Amino acid sequence: MLKYFQDDAPILYFLLNEGGVVLSINKYCRKLLGANIVGDNFEELLVDFQQSFTLEKYIHKSDTHHLLHLNIPNSLPRSYLFTFRRVNDAILVFGKSDAEELELLRSELLRANQELNNLTRSLQKKNAQLAHLNSVKNQFLGMATHDLRKPISVILTYTEFLLDETSEQLNSEHTGFLNKIENSALFMKRLVNDFLDVSAIEAGHFNLNITQVNPAEILEKSLVSARIPASKKRVDLDVKIQTGLSQIPVDADKIEQVMSNLIGNAIEHAPLGTTVCVALQETENKILFSVEDRGDGMSREAIKKIFSPFSRSSSTKTGSEKSTGLGLTISRKIIDAHQGKIVAESEEGRGTCFIVYLNKK
Fold it and tell me: CATH assignment of 211-359?
């Protein structure tokens, strides 16, 4: 009888010791699982989805068939009906296929596959709808912000004219009104420009004009516009530029936008009378641009969100300056488009440092 099971029958046969270790298997079992399972624990051959298998429990139910799943090498698990019987100091385990159970499993798999296909089609349809809505949103945002540029420019132009030409004829209260109008218009101009940048990036119209440029020249342009707000807040700019920097392939205007944004951001968070450190240096493969302030700093949680759209850092702007919450998002997208990297390092109470890595080739 045992010889029949061991040699010819398409039935699984295992001989186990009391600890559940496989001592012997039949030919069909060896073909299915491999001869190297001898010496393994029987439990290790199973795919126990419910983590409920114990050999002792099944031995006590020797007249019952148990549906178990075998882990088949290089294939999907297969289900068999097993019986367990104790013979002297050994345990005999027999397994056979159950056609009815296999058909049930096949039906379940087909139904699950059909449901998955339906969900996939539904998801693709919703993704297409979202992509269309996002495109419409970007188009509307671009048109709206573009149309806002002209009236904002008119407000700024006439406000500057009134401040320059009539400052001696106006009292301090009226001059203050004009300054508030100018500051609000400048903020609105930055807001419009940021929205236009974001809509262009999301619409896939973010094209780079790559040329070979000396990064020191880009930084010098950025510092020109940064020195005025720094002077108003009595913030010193400590600039260190390594001599003999290599030229790098970048879009000069976009990188100037990043540098101006980071320097301006540092000035806004710097306490009055402190120093903002700006550095530009070269390594073997990279150009490193860094900006560091002595502001409140940020927590680790805030740092994780700092490049997200409309995020607000936990640190306070010392001059109560307004911002769109898009500057750092745009900066990161610009650096990503250059295959570079931008990181933020901060410690609460000790300030924040932004570092930009740009490739030399």
Answer: 3.30.565.10
Range 110-202 has CATH code 1.10.287: yes
pTM of the model: 0.53
Which CATH number applies to 2-97? 3.30.450.20
Q: Are 174 and 207 in contact (CB under 8 A)?
A: no
The pLDDT tens digits of the residues spanning 1-59 come to 444 444 556 789 899 999 999 999 988 888 888 878 999 999 989 988 777 788 888 88
Distance of CA 28 to the CA centre of its chain: 50
Over 80: is that where the pLDDT of 270 sits?
yes
User: What are the backbone angles phi and psi of residue 239, rounded to the nearest 5°?
Assistant: -105, 125
Query: In degrees to the nearest 10, what's the CA dihedral of 199, 201, 204, 206?
Result: 120
Return the domain boundaries, the chain. Answer: 2-97, 110-202, 211-359
Q: Where are the beta strands (DSSP E) in the chain?
A: 12-16, 22-25, 66-70, 78-87, 90-96, 211-213, 236-241, 248-250, 275-282, 286-292, 341-347, 351-359
Among 202-206, 243-247, 305-309, whose mean pLDDT is lowest? 202-206
74 Rama sector, left if φ>0, alpha if ψ -120 to 50, beta otherwise: left
